[in-house]
Amino acid sequence: MVKAQLIDATKGLTPEQLQELGSALRDGALVVFPTETVYGIGADGMSSRAVQRIFQAKGRPQDNPVILHIAHPAMVPLVAKELPPVGDALIKKFWPGPLTLVLAKNDAVPAEVSAGLGTVALRMPDHPVALAIIQAAGVPLAAPSANTSGKPSPTDAFHAAQDLSEEVEYIVDGGPCRVGVESTVVDLTVYPPVILRHGAVTAEMLEEYGVVTPSAKELKALQHRSPGMRHRHYAPQGESWLFCLPEASLPGAIAQTAKDYLQQGKRVALLVTSDTKALLPEFTEVVLVFELGSRQDPRTIAANIFRCLRQCDQLSAEIILIEGITEAGLGKAISDRLRRACQGRVIDKE
Ligand code: TXA
Ligand code: MG
Fold it and tell me: Closest Cα to residue 189, out of 65, 93, 92?
């Protein structure tokens, strides 16, 4: 058991701090660091031993590969066999940024990183602290989200510390993450390229590059290509329900369900848009109401969902009623995370 050292990087890191982190990473340390999407738990991505430690720390299933983070597109050939022309175009447009590319891996990539697949997932994060740490380490950093496996991803350093402070050597605090949902994952080893996970680089933005969104059925067939999609994810401790109903009936349905559970003596939490909140009745019993943001502003909703799900756990919510978000643009990524959090408990009929 280790006790993490907390480093405040909200105003950046000093050259001495970067040197310390870089050399610790090269020696096999685990370092939690901020990215624009969520916090990552980083290790030397070229070292089997260091990467194995990530799996242990998170309790991550061995068959779930991890993303390698690089500080510059010039680092791609260190780990990938080839970059198809579409990959080059995507990198020019979206890196640094929340887009992960799956490419054919080369022999330098340890089997643990790719979980035995012949591919490697790569991204260049859009965060100065992340880029500086990768540069200081001088190697690609393997970094899954810095949460215990199955829990909501951490969007601030405190959330990561809740899960991992006894497992990692350093936690670098860069303040809250701007995007709030994990990167879009695109597989470039198939034709046409497919989206394996939705994120802030949306299906609409990727369409002009010939990247397609697989149907639910196709995604199931592709699951062996991205095993992470199979596992339990983002689940709060309480029983969560997703309400995918028309705007007109949504507030009433959520209010009625909340009342029913309150009558059973349950601790109820609501995760709703500000639009819906304005239409809810005053509850006489205790209900925890978390405002995700306005329906017109999916970016704010994305930045809030994991924090709100974690607060439900902190406050021991037993029943969590969540408003469904329209599945377009960034809404696809939000909706995907909320559906997983609810593990199939979806109300879509009035
Ligand atoms: O935004 C992000 O991507 C964050 C930050 C820290 O960069 N990282 C992240 O990592 O979300 P993780 O491990 O929580 O999710 C990685 C996803 C999983 O769904 C995994 O299955 C998929 O990427 N993945 C990794 N390597 C892959 C590969 N070779 N082929 C297909 N999918 C892969
Ligand atoms: Mg994750």
Answer: 65
